[in-house]
Amino acid sequence: MDCPMCKTKFRCLMIAFSIFLLTFGLVGCGSDDTTKNTPPPPPPNVNDPQNPDPVEPAPAETVKVTMYFPTSDATGLAPTERTINVAKAASEEVIAGMFKEFANPPSGLVAPLPKDTKLLDVKIKDGVATLNLSHSFRENFEGGATGEEMVLYSIVNSLTTLEDVDSVEFLLEGELKAAILGGLDTSTPVTANESLILK
């Protein structure tokens, strides 16, 4: 005759053992989950999906130039050496750098550009550097024949020191003006005036 108590104890042991196996199995499976400690992959480069590697900026180059600044009494143009930092040594970039330098005259000399003048664009073709200047170049010019010479030839004499620039054409917001500052002829490209350079 089977003992009912033995059957009950056996069932209890089987239930307890099953619970133990289930618990051990779940804990074991959880301990093998290595994804929790794995960092997420880096996000893709949204700027260039074809090339996920970041693009390093081009190293800057330095170019030494001679620039001409008017004297405070407008008696002539004084040469000064400057170093221009550019991404590449193309003359258009050098000219853009020179225009920034015009705002920083040496001690005793003056900035040639009228207030708020901006170089909108520059192109070089067949030895002619074509400058597209903002309206401020004309609107903020304070006038006078001597002042006009100082402004225009400070630019022209400086830019024609570059090997591929022989003359300078002036545009005002894209338009060619017969006399961009009112007096001197700028209907054709302007060449350097060495008589204004102080020795």
From TrEMBL:
SMART domains: Germane
Keyword Manganese tagged: no
Comp. bias (Pro residues): 38-57
Keyword check for Signal: yes
Sequence segments annotated as region (Disordered): 33-58
Keywords of this entry: Signal
Signal sequence segment: 1-28
Pfam families attached to this UniProt entry: Germane
Span of domain GerMN: 95-181
Entries under PROSITE patterns matching the protein: PROKAR_LIPOPROTEIN (PS51257)
Name of protein: GerMN domain-containing protein
